[in-house]
């Protein structure tokens, strides 16, 4: 589904990614870990097409198609979803109206007509029940006055509604207490399927107790320096990153 080869990227002239290689197949969950400033969020932003970041070298292929010249909107319409570390507040736009617009814009990009209102309401009902979301929540302005947990839960609701084939969760656990973390992780797990893939970006192993990854990758200084199974995350929790830095002489 996703093939990244020798990816180098910079922001404002500063080189952040320095040769990332990564392959992800449908049905897989990959965790990307690393200390602050290692390049985790930059990788997420570059895959999603954020315009502040410049790809200097290498390629990103999604379903066999190169993403280089695609805008963030085009990537989203093709099924790439990015959950933000710090979701934006949009006063005056309800969660429901936002989702209607987003879904119909993606349908338009695929040459389809708007989703009928009855079908949209049925989808909203199904997904809100799946994620245990109160219907009153859906009439509120997006993230306006939301707690940290509510903001992240809203991101997972958007993911459920859009049904992307590749979801990137950028530090979804940031700022969450244990109850909110469980709710968000439960939503992600309910959306796992054989035809979708997920990248979970996190500092901490605790999220991976709830969203169990198939693969764990460690980024240091803009490169993936080690990959393994969930045991690697446990080792990082116990020993930190210094032993890896010594191993690869960073």
UniProtKB/TrEMBL annotation:
InterPro entries assigned: AAA+_ATPase, ABC_transporter-like_ATP-bd, FeS-cluster_ATPase_SufC, P-loop_NTPase
Lineage: superkingdom: Bacteria
Gene it is expressed from: sufC
Name of the protein in its database record: Fe-S cluster assembly ATPase SufC
Residues of the ABC transporter domain: 2-246
PROSITE patterns recorded: ABC_TRANSPORTER_2
Organism: Pricia mediterranea
Keywords, in A-Z order: ATP-binding, Nucleotide-binding
Family: Belongs to the ABC transporter superfamily. Ycf16 family.
């Amino acid at each position: 589904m996703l093939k990244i080869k020798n990816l180098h990227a910079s922001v404002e002239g500063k080189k952040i990614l320095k040769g990332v290689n990564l392959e992800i197949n449908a049905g897989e969950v990959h965790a990307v870990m690393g200390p602050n400033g290692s390049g985790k969020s930059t990788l997420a932003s570059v895959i999603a097409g954020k315009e502040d970041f410049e790809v200097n070298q290498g390629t990103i292929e999604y379903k066999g198609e190169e993403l280089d010249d695609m805008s963030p909107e085009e990537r989203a319409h093709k099924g790439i979803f990015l959950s933000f570390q710090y979701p934006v507040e949009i006063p005056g736009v309800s969660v429901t109206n936002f989702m209607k617009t987003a879904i119909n814009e993606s349908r338009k990009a695929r040459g389809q007509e708007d989703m009928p209102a009855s079908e949209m309401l049925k989808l909203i009902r199904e997904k809100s029940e799946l994620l245990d979301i109160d219907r009153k929540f859906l009439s509120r302005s997006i993230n306006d006055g939301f707690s940290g947990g509510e903001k992240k839960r809203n991101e997972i609701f958007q993911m459920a509604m859009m049904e992307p084939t590749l979801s990137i969760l950028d530090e979804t656990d940031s700022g969450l207490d244990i109850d909110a973390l469980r709710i968000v992780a439960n939503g992600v797990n309910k959306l796992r399927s054989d035809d979708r893939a997920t990248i979970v970006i996190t500092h901490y192993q605790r999220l991976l107790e709830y969203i169990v990854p198939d693969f764990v990758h460690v980024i240091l200084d803009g490169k993936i320096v080690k990959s393994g199974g969930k045991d690697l995350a446990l080792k990082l929790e116990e020993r930190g990153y210094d032993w890896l830095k010594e191993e690869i002489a960073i």
